[in-house]
Specification:
By secondary structure, the protein is α/β, with parallel strands linked by helices. It contains 21 helices and nine strands. The strands form two sheets. Strands 4-6-7-8-5-9 form a six-stranded parallel sheet, with helices on both faces.
């Protein structure tokens, strides 16, 4: 009876998707004044609950006889499999997909537990994208079966795709869902080619019920990946499967895409998420503050919303910083504190240009930046130039032609350089290590 009371409290305090995915499957083996023993299907499941929901469970125990009890977790995969097998077919169709009883091949990238529909703030800037994602998650054909969402970094496109995956995993677990980035797709294809398992690669994605691909702009210059993706999309779209794409730009704005791939990406609803208006931003500020249990006055809420431009992740960063300052000083958050926090965040959020990347990479390779603008094809010059173009594409919002101008080159040279470095990363561990090291340094210098 006590565990049922705890469950009821958790159902009321947690988001429905989180409760359905992580709490409802738990079984109570023992509940006494000194011990609450919960059972899950495997170690991963129990570990996730212990690391992410322990505080919520303890809060739900407050006021009950077991409120001081130690919480422990055990696993019993066989019990969960047997219970699933006893369910009628029509019930099993909607049962939660536990890690131990997955029946269909699927790949889902790591999901942020907070990225669910209930946590998403809807405004005019994202209403169409939000509505389409909810519709597709529920299996509706109201918006068709193909969706492309374009938006700059930090405006919520990943939140929506994570929310779709969360909803599907909780409500329709037998669906064959493949959710990955375009970079991951390329890497998996390369591994399959090396292992001579391309048929397995094709079968896995061609048999998807739902395919979700993020960061489509990284397909620029990857001809082989685009060829395979075209075939996969033909099969999925012709058979009425669901396909969701996201990218930093719309399909027509991404240079270096094959016309066939561009056409397939644009075959359904194409919608963009723009920067929120002030009213929507204030709602985002208020929601983030509530999540972090920080009391903000209306004045601070509006001021923070007015100051943050572009990447909405900066709002959370500001609130985390404000909460830290408030806690350390043991004072209520005020305008002076907020301005101190924002001074760091806004100053660091400057625009990075291809020239910034070029000059920094030149310094790392101990060459003169002017050498990267020369016509020299010596490897000591050509390689840093290609690396600079690769990172300029990754860390700036500049078009390929604009990147080319920073090196006295045209956009086709940029496409070639991006492809060369991408292939080198996949095939040469030495280059892979160099790029990874430079990536960390660039992020720390320009974005951290």
């Amino acid at each position: 009876m006590t565990w049922q009371q705890i469950e009821q409290k958790l159902e009321g305090s947690l988001a429905p998707d989180i409760y359905a995915l992580w709490i409802r499957p738990l079984k109570c083996r023992r509940c006494s004044d000194d011990l609450l023993e919960l059972c899950g299907p495997d170690r991963f499941f129990c570990s996730w609950v212990a690391n992410n929901l322990m505080a919520d469970i303890k809060a739900a125990m407050t006021g009950l006889a077991c409120q001081e009890a130690q919480i422990t977790f055990t696993t019993d995969a066989s019990a969960f499999c047997q219970e699933a097998a006893k369910k009628p077919a029509d019930c099993r169709q909607e049962q939660l997909c536990l890690p131990s009883v997955a029946k269909t091949p699927t790949f889902v990238r790591v999901l942020n537990p907070r990225y669910i529909f209930d946590e998403f703030v809807v405004g005019d800037c994202n209403a169409v994208a939000h509505s389409a994602c909810r519709s597709l998650a529920r299996g509706s054909r109201e918006y068709g079966r193909c969706l492309y969402i374009s938006a700059p970094t930090g405006l919520g496109k990943s939140h929506l795709t994570h929310a779709v995956a969360h909803y599907i995993l909780a409500h329709n677990p037998r669906v064959r869902l493949n959710y990955l980035s375009a970079q991951q797709l390329t890497s998996e294809m390369v591994r399959s080619i090396r292992a001579k398992k391309m048929e397995d690669f094709k079968r896995k994605f061609q048999n998807s019920d739902i395919l979700m691909l993020e960061d489509l702009q990284s397909l620029t210059g990857r001809t082989k990946t685009q060829e395979e993706l075209s075939v996969i999309l033909d099969i999925l779209l012709e058979s009425g499967k669901t396909v969701i794409f996201t990218g930093g730009q719309s399909p027509r704005e991404i240079n270096g895409l094959e016309s066939g791939v561009r056409s397939r990406m644009s075959s359904g609803l194409v919608t963009a998420i723009s920067e929120p208006d002030l009213e929507t931003k204030t709602q985002i500020v208020s929601k983030k503050a509530r999540q972090l249990k920080l009391n903000l006055s209306d004045e601070l809420t509006w001021y923070l919303a007015e100051q943050i431009k572009g990447d909405m992740r900066q709002i959370k960063s500001a609130i985390v910083g404000l909460k830290a300052k408030s806690s350390i000083s043991r004072q209520t958050a005020d305008m002076e504190m907020l301005k101190e926090v924002l001074a760091n965040i806004i100053n660091q959020a400057r625009t990075v240009t291809p020239a910034d990347i070029r000059d920094y990479i030149a310094d790392q390779f101990s060459v003169n930046p002017d050498d990267l603008l020369s016509k020299s094809r010596k490897r000591a010059i050509a390689f840093p130039r290609q690396v600079s173009m690769y990172f300029a594409r990754k860390y700036t919002r500049s078009a390929l032609s604009e990147i080319g101008k920073a090196f006295n080159r045209d956009h086709s040279t940029v496409v070639h350089s991006i492809r060369v470095i991408g292939e080198a990363i996949n095939n040469d561990r030495s280059v892979q290590g160099q790029i990874k090291m430079l990536d960390g340094k660039l992020y720390e210098k320009f974005l951290s």
